[in-house]
DNA sequence: GACTGGCACTCGACTTTGAGGAGTGCCAAG
DNA sequence: CTTGGCACTCCTCAAAGTCGAGTGCCAGTC
């Protein structure tokens, strides 16, 4: 038996009421608060079906109904329209992001903004190195046997590493290397650089080859292997809203998960162009987050995507509002990046 | 009436038992677990005095006693010897810090280590720019009207800023500026640089002065005004140990405080040489942390101090152990920095 | 004077009991 | 298919009662 329109309407009403009140919702309360045009008894029958299909459940006999993960999923997919942002929110976003002075600043402001607007935990990934291009590479002599390698990406990210040279090297030679390296690598996607770095060594004059090889290996590390993704996090205090009721009694696992960068990256890092992804409860692969939902999306200048951002909260969250906010913030950040 | 030795011994026993069990401790249990050589009745009399003096209190009539903040303070100041670290802990520290590849890495490893060893929230301040010297300044042309200013400090910190030039500038001129700036500033304490930067502009050839002024202003921002302190945080999940019992029922205020960098810096940033500072409950100026204690100290290569680190936990914490761990970690990190 | 054993008393923690009520499922009738 | 009615379930809350840890005080002892 498939679900007719009224049953879907009942599900929507249940989700909305439960999200708003945090309490199991009963048939009588439902008909009172929504114009369903039928009696509580009818609603009860519908509820029985919805429960059988796995969209809602009773915490215990003689209690109201609560949406299941599947129920939220259906709600998100078919029953909710994305809310428009309020003018106040729009203004907040603009005000917050104006005046950011560099990439760090942009990311920090963004993550705080997201946390504040959604009243949940926000995560923002720094522009991924893997998706960036080399804007410039700099070699700074620290001593005769030590260099600082500084890589500046087009997304504004700057990475640096120390290079220990095998032998003292004149600063002219360093300048020389720098020129060669830049002419070879500037403008290239980081992902494409490894073969180019190899040719750097191959084409190098033999007497300088060991030194160049040394620089090249650190270069590779910096550009590709290490390829360390960075994150910013804010709003953990929001986890405590709604008491310990959300997250089935313990914040512990959630806080633990939030400390693992790898996990967070998995959550917000897997981005497909212009999609907003919603993971509800069990859909999260991470056990610790079975009781949480994650709304994430990609951002970047124009249509390209250079990183992800998102929020994490209880499964019982305002999905339409959250989705709208996440999208809007991502768009603004993308525009901001495009200006640089 | 002052406290004789046995009363102090009773206080110590109360603190130790309470920290271990998290439960109010009564007179009978005390004499059973510690060799006090007197009867419960005597201990009761001592307790009455200790309570009158404000070192312990009863959660309610007919419950055992619990140390007050003042009690912990007395315990820390006069009744506890710093514990020696276990060999396992020493090994853990060494193993953890070996293999750190750059400053970021050192700081991240340190903060995780601290959180893990103390089982509390750990905070590590990056080496403060204010206490660093300039190792090198680099100007990287991005376009003809844009430079990237990169500052490398002797502590390993690297800061970068974008400079918008008033007019297109030849790369030779940039090289020139770079040379001048470096000869003037390299090796100087960041705190001492502002007057030097001013002379940079003053001594500059008139036709280049506007450009130089522009660079100089960003330079000042980077070196001094912005002087942004950075922090790493780990172990927030440890706040949930001991249920919601610690922190008088709500993690909320604590989590909020942990999100404010300014607050954290206040907590661990005010360092005096070779002191370990312990703030207990009310001694914290931040209202949100009235129910928490903070153990912090400074670290740095040799005897100089370049930053702070510490842990935050419930007032009911193992002070001797925590103090020992914090000190040891600070020392190891200092040694590590000295090697670079 | 300090310590001790004894004793009455307090009061929170936990259990039991019972009333109240929200909510359900089912059924028969419209 | 919808609806009103009804019996039933079972949670919530409050009241009452028991239990026991822990105390304060006092009189007696060393």
TrEMBL record, chains A, B:
Keywords: Repressor, Stress response, Transcription, Transcription regulation. Belongs to the HrcA family. HAMAP family: HrcA. InterPro entries: DeoR_HTH, GAF-like_dom_sf, HrcA, HrcA_C, WH-like_DNA-bd_sf, WH_DNA-bd_sf, WHTH_transcript_rep_HrcA_IDD. This is Heat-inducible transcription repressor HrcA. One of its GO terms (molecular function) is DNA-binding transcription factor activity. It comes from Actinoplanes nipponensis. It comes from the Bacteria. Residues 104-323 form the Heat-inducible transcription repressor HrcA C-terminal domain. The keyword NADP does not apply. The keyword Transcription applies. Residues 17-62 form the HTH deoR-type domain. Pfam families: HrcA (PF01628), HTH_DeoR (PF08220). Negative regulator of class I heat shock genes (grpE-dnaK-dnaJ and groELS operons). Prevents heat-shock induction of these operons. GO terms for biological process: negative regulation of DNA-templated transcription.
């Amino acid at each position: 038996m498939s679900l007719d329109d009224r049953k879907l309407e009942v599900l929507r009403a249940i989700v909305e009421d439960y999200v708003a009140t945090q309490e199991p919702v009963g048939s009588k309360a439902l008909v009172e608060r929504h114009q369903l045009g039928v009696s509580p008894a009818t609603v009860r029958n519908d509820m029985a079906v919805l429960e059988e299909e796995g969209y809602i459940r009773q915490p215990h006999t003689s209690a109201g109904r609560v949406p299941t993960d599947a129920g939220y999923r259906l709600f998100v997919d078919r029953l909710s329209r994305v809310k428009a942002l309020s003018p106040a929110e729009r203004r907040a976003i603009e005000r917050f992001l104006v005046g950011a002075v560099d990439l760090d600043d942009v990311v920090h402001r963004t993550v705080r903004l997201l946390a504040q607007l959604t009243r949940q935990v926000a995560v923002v990934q720094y522009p991924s190195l893997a998706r960036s291009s080399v804007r410039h590479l700099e070699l700074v002599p620290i001593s005769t046997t030590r260099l600082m390698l500084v890589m500046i990406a087009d997304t504004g990210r700057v990475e640096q590493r120390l290079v220990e040279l095998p032998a003292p090297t004149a600063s002219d030679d360093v300048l020389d290397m720098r020129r060669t390296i830049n002419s070879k690598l500037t403008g290239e996607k980081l992902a494409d650089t490894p073969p180019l770095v190899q040719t750097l060594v191959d084409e190098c004059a033999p007497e300088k080859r060991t030194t160049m090889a040394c620089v090249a290996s650190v270069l590779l590390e910096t550009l590709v292997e290490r390829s360390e993704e960075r994150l910013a996090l804010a709003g953990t205090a929001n986890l405590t809203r709604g008491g310990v009721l959300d997250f089935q009694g313990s914040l512990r696992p959630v806080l633990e998960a939030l400390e693992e960068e790898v996990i967070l990256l998995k959550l917000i890092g897997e981005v497909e162009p212009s999609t907003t992804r919603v993971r509800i409860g069990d859909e999260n692969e991470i056990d610790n987050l079975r009781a949480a939902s994650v709304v994430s999306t990609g951002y970047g200048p124009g249509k390209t995507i250079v990183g992800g951002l998102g929020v994490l909260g209880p499964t019982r969250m305002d999905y339409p509002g959250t989705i709208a906010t996440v999208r809007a913030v991502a768009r603004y950040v993308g525009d901001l990046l495009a200006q640089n």
